[in-house]
Every structure is written in C-alpha cells, then in structure tokens.
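Exercise 4. Each item below gives a protein and its sequence. For each, produce the structure-token representation.

Item: UPF0316 protein ACFSR0_03380 (Enterococcus camelliae).
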Amino acid sequence: MSISILAMTFFINFAYVTISTIRFMLTMKGYRLLAPILSMIEITIYILGLSLVLNRLDNPINLFVYALGYAVGISVGILIEDRLALGYIMTTAILPSNTDNDENLPTVLRNKGYGVTQSYGEGLSGERMILEILSPRKNERELYQLIKSVEERAFIITYEPKFISGGFWTKKVRKRQSTLLK
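Answer:
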C-alpha cells in the first residue's frame, strides 16, 4: 500500500467531513443558497473517498486512515464554524437588582450598541434584574466579559435564535442576511 494512496484517502475524507460539518451548521442557521452549493462539493468528495477505500478493503489500514480523516474533519469543521461565528445569540443576564455597583449595566450595554430589554423577576434571594440582549455570535465572548466587568455576580445564559422579527435589530439582521445570500 503506497503512502500516497493513504494520504489521499485521509485528505479526501478530511475535506469531505470538514465541508459536511460546515454545511450542516449553515443549514441549521438557514443559509439557503450556500448550504446546497457546499452539499454538491461535499457529495463529490465523498464518492471519491469512498471509492478509494472500497477498492482497497484488503488492507485494514485503509479503513483506519479513512476513519481518521473523518474524525479530524469533524474537529476542524467545528473549529472553522466557531471562527466564522455565523448568526446571532440571545443572551439573558440575571443580576441582583440591589447592586452596589455605580455603573448601570443596561446603559453600558446600550452605549456599546447592544439592544437590551430590561425586566424584573423574583429569585431565591429576592428581586432580580433580567436583561435580554441580542448580539452577533462573533461578539459573544466580548459581551460576556463586558457583563462580568460591570456585574461579576451576573448569571448569564446564551442561546441561538432561529428567527428574528421586529425590534431595532431587524434592519441590521435583514441587511446582513441579504448580503450573504447574494
């Protein structure tokens, strides 16, 4: 078994799974043009890699290298998607409402360009301020650090909304989505 065939088997499956992982994440985020284009490339690479392995099943190393390319491809696909940080996150920050901090977190966040909806709720230890913040996913760590720098006791939860409608972010979201679809 030649090293070049093993290397080709690894890199073909690596490329296939990396593209497949990214395509799946794009599909879940609603990229209706880019995801199908990537799927065409993905299936072409898949057939190439599978035929390489199926034509050489006499050597178990071929199957191992194919599986190794698969595993590494998933890891790299996830890393690429994390770096792209496509989409938006919705962050809920729950704060003690009787804070001694001089800074007003909703004002700080709004001054940084975040949309903030403020409400109040009741927690185990009393009244809490609840902030709902919509942000591009690429700003998630920055937002988290900003909240913690103003109120270190904040309880923070983030999730990815599938649909966004209304509010001051709607125009920004539609503009970005129309740019990506063109």
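Check: The chain has a mean pLDDT of 85.
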